Amino acid sequence: MSSLAELFARQAAWTPRAPALLTDRGPVDYAELDRRSAALAAELAARGVGPESRVGVLLPRGPDLVTALLAVWRVGGAYVPLDPEHPARRSAQVLQDTAPAVLVTGSDVRVRPSDLGADAPVVHVEDAYAGHRDAPRTIVPADPDTAAYVLHTSGSTGRPKGVVVTHGGIANRVLWTVRRHRLGPADRILHKTAVTFDAAGWEIFAPLVSGGAVAIAPPGADRDPALLLRSVAAHRATVLQVVPSLLRVLVGEPDWSGCETLRLLFSAGEPLDAELCRQLLERHGCEIWNTYGPTECAIDVAAHRVDPAVPSGPVPLGRAIDRTRLRVLDEMGEPVPVGVPGELYVGGAGVARGYAGRPDLTAERFVPDPYGLPGARLYRTGDLVAWRADGRLRFLGRIDRQVKVNGVRIEPAEVEGALTAHPGVGAAAVTARDGRLVAYVTPARGLAVAPAGVELRAHLRDRLPAPMVPAVFVPLAELPLTASGKIDRGALPAGDGPGPSADRRPLSAAEWTVAECWMELLDGARPGPSDDFFKLGGHSLLLAGLAARLRERTGAPVDVADLYSAATVERQAALLTAARPAAGDEGDGAVPRARRDGPQPASHGQRRMWLLDRMNPGAAEYTVPLMLRLDVTPDVLERALTRLAARHEALRTRFRMDDADLVQVVDPPRPVPVRVVDAEPGALPGLVAAEVAEGFDLRDGPVWRGTLLREPGAVPLVLLTFHHIACDGTSLLVVERELRELCATGAAEDDVPDPDRIDHVDYTTWQRRRVETRAAADLDHWRRTLAGAEPLDLPADRPRPAVRDAAGAVVRWTLPADRARQLVRVGHAHGATPYTTLLTAFACLLGGYAGTRDLLVGSPVSDRVRPELEPVVGFLSETLVHRLDLSGDPDFGTALTRAAAVVRASLAHRHVPFDRLVAELAPGADRSRTPLFQVMFDLQDDGVSGPAEDPADAGLLDHAWRVARTDLGLTVRRSADGALAGRFEYATALFGETTVRRLADRFVRLLGALADRPRVPVGDLATATGAERC
Fold first, then answer.
1. Helix (H, G, I), strand (E, B) or coil at 474
2. Sign of the CA dihedral 146, 150, 153, 154?
3. Angle ∠(154,160,163) on CA atoms, nearest 5
4. Does position 543 have pLDDT exceeding 90, yes or no?
């Protein structure tokens, strides 16, 4: 992904004379803004500014401010915005907190750097413009994970805390806006937000990377509604962003003349009400969007287009923007059902690195994502939300103002209201400290001191239940306030009683590096040298994230397997000390663009799919379906599918052998035809079955197709079928999301080409190079691990054919959310993820059914280990083999512990492609069964409904499913409320439907028994639930 600075420079080269900035003094074109920012960048570079350097920017809203931000990014640095209107004390705290390498200001800025105690070198923009008139237009490429800006928000200690947002995070938010709202040269976005607020970022950079113009509002426009409307009219602005409180005043303004150009209005920062939107639409017809996001997540993470047909009520927060994950969890970290309040956690590209210089607070708010990829994190927003039935979020309030004392939930505002009802109290603030409720009170006007605690306690006892009466009353002359006039609760005195202290051995520099990474990934407490990563809550999926963090900070190529063996701080620090960056080893670094000058080698996964297809050309064994109900016409669907194919190379790729190597041939974009079928009543199951049963020609293509099935009185059914060589599970999510967006907009406009976009060909080249450097060492692990393993022979209804028959069918089962959450909690108590917990339960079922204690279970694993690979469509997965040990009839807790170690080791040695593993360990394998393993397990925990979103449509797919890729496969999907939906895929040549249904029933009973009695030997539980035989 190109940085925003690179995209701006590219736009400046394309449209040098187009207006980039619109001011009261006239426009500034792209060429001039490019020249100025290059000049200032040259001065910054001369002073040593580069990637990860902090640069203070003390400038008012205007052309110099935009220039400075671009200049900082041109050299790869991170800007630290300072508002000249802010109190000098706050700006001084920001400078002290970030210690910028340089401070950029202007000669006309009334605040002098010396007033802020700044000791950094000062650069005046005017001097830089004059001194570097002919500066080259160079740009330092910015890694997506490096810092782009440090924005300070109110801190719990009374000091502002700096949020470190990455280049990839802000680019994702800005480019989503450009794509979703089709911003272009005709757009003029009014920039009125102070640069110390993150929303200013997209106001500035969205137009500059899409050929539009930044319309700079005059001073005071953000507070004066009449002036704001005059600015919209003067600059012919097309896009405006406001908070609801300002919007409410704007609606009441009498003069909206000249605002006809306004087509998009964004509301953010406060809850939005549909009634207010209705009033606006009566004044001016435009598209209204409600956006939501904390500073810690690169401006916004969710958005919702306001429906004019809904006249009242709160507007929902909406759905996640691109490359963003939204999870609503309860106090135990479990997903909540639809309609049930929970805390919102955010993951994905926009999540900030953390708080500058605050590893403790970073670890508290940025937590591991137990449901995401290895190393993925979630930001705890502190916001109380709930899922609506339509998949959108509604906002309920803040969690962090609610406290719990002695098991009783208390809303401080209610206690504060009762306190201020006392005639002697002027203001009050209530919080919980050390398990007690503490009230802070100030005297009413005319009184020297606030009433005594005994008097206030008696006053409250007449108004509140006993648990809501504070235990401690702290009199204050006045309550501390934030810059915005709100009570600064973090600055309230502690009352009485010191906080706990820790007596730990001092850490070396290397140990501190390890400890900081642990604090980011785990629970926030600073570990000691001998603390164990896994005993503190670490697990296998976090090891890759730990390795990546250590490598980013030190350059040391620490291997996941080594971290697993060296689990303490001091031992991992020793690994860092011993390791040195390997020359030319790119490891898991950013995926580079590959050449496009002809056919490229296929990935290892594609090669495996090709070989399987050659054994039975055109078979449907590896067909992947996606079914959606969309109210769409054939022409719109055809345009949408054509746009999808143009975006994703895997959807227009063919394969051929070239000198004994498989290569992929990417065809140029061309129209994608849609087959339209008007189905008679009752004909849909047969039509879906026929479509899913049809294979693909991988040599001549295409590798996917689309069908629109229409039946009377129903929303049309869109059925897309792919060959697995072009699509994996995550790809289905990408295709579904993009198809919905394209169909909603009519797919009328072509995408703006992005020459730096990472696609499947780039992944293929990157993967093959990575495998070359790591596979040999990992292969030794697999030789040891799989030595002596025997095939799994499940008791079958029919004898096994001499040649494996791929015919199959499916049986579904469900486990309610409350039972599923209980099972997952048992897993968490033993350091096991939901994946490991369900895998272990599956092994217990198989062990009892087959009478064996040594099992090999195959499992797909995503290879999307870099954020730039998340939106790629294609086959980006590998297959692992887990050897699970149930010897000695362990209880479930012990089995979980064993399985967790197996999964950790499998992930640590995942770099051997499965086809190579088969060639090395099972040459000339038995043709009657799949090589290495005969059963497979997969957990899909992505918060979507799967290949078919409607239960009735899922039944259509079950009816159509006629293949089995192993003897028995289990796929489990965790829904948003935590419930489990599973499907057994079985070989009909071996098993009858009745047998598999009995097996599914016993598995559901076994899951409940394992959750209720994790200390009972699994063999006894299998016997008790009938899982030992079906």
1. strand
2. positive
3. 90
4. no
